[in-house]
Amino acid sequence: MEDFIKIEKDPKEINLLNPLVWAYVGDSVYELFIRTNLVNNSNEKVHKLHMKAIKYVKAAGQAKILKSLEKELTEEEKNIVRRSRNTQNHHIAKNATPAEYAYATAFEGLIGYLYLTKQKDRLKYILNKSLEEGEDKNG
After folding, report:
1. pLDDT tens digits for 35-50?
2. Residue 29, SS3?
3. Is-contact 15 80, C-beta < 8 A?
4. What are phi and psi of 44, to 5 degrees?
5. 44 CB contacts (<8 Å, ≥6 apart)?
6. 3, 10, 27, 121: which one is catalytic?
7. Is there a contact between 104 and 30 (Cβ–Cβ < 8 Å)?
8. How far apart are CA 123 and CA 95, in angstroms?
9. pLDDT, position 15
10. What pLDDT, on the 0 to 100 scale, is given for residue 136?
11. Percent of residues in the chain assigned helix, strand, coil, to nearest 5
12. How far apart are the first and last CA of the chain?
């Protein structure tokens, strides 16, 4: 993956991006992580895989995962979460409360920020913890 997906911005530039940009990237990273995990651990048909993935990627699920991980976040990560959660987003969530949507955006912002700043070990840890938390909450 690293050979064909190149992150060309330096960490200072990434830190100045709108947190919704982090969330935009984080949404894709998280969904790919969940889908890949489901494919690796199941022989289900696509529809069933999709239904399982929805439980993880919906806003309410992401909000719960973030809340359960908050105590493990570094100060930098808490700042990223706060900035992402508080960013004005003019999107109206269909199946989530405004608070759930804000926390889901914060979760995706954190994932995107870690990905863009190439904090691979921390990203891997958070993604794996989110999978555990999601299994506990959705299982």
Report:
1. 999 999 999 999 999 9
2. helix
3. no
4. -70, 160
5. 38, 52
6. 27
7. no
8. 27
9. 94
10. 58
11. 75, 0, 25
12. 30
How would you classify residue 79: left for phi > 0, otherwise alpha for psi between -120 and 50, otherwise beta? alpha
Active site residue 121: no
Show the tokens assigned to 73: 């976040």
Type of residue numbered 125: Y
pLDDT digits (tens, 9 = 90+) for 104-122: 999 999 999 999 999 999 9
Contacts of 26 (CB under 8 A, 6+ apart): 107, 108, 109, 110, 111, 112, 113, 115
- Give the pTM: 0.90
Residue 138 CB coordination number (10 Å):
14
What is the mean predicted confidence (pLDDT) over 62-76?
94
Of residues 25 and 87, the one with the higher pLDDT is: 25
* Burial zone of 20 (CB within 10 Å; 0-12 exposed, 13-18 middle, 19+ buried): middle
Which pLDDT band, with edges at 50, 70 and 90, does 28 fall under?
Answer: very high
**Mean per-residue pLDDT, 88-114:** 87
Place of tokens 């794996």: 128
Q: Which domains does the chain have, with CATH numbers?
A: 11-138 (1.10.1520.10)
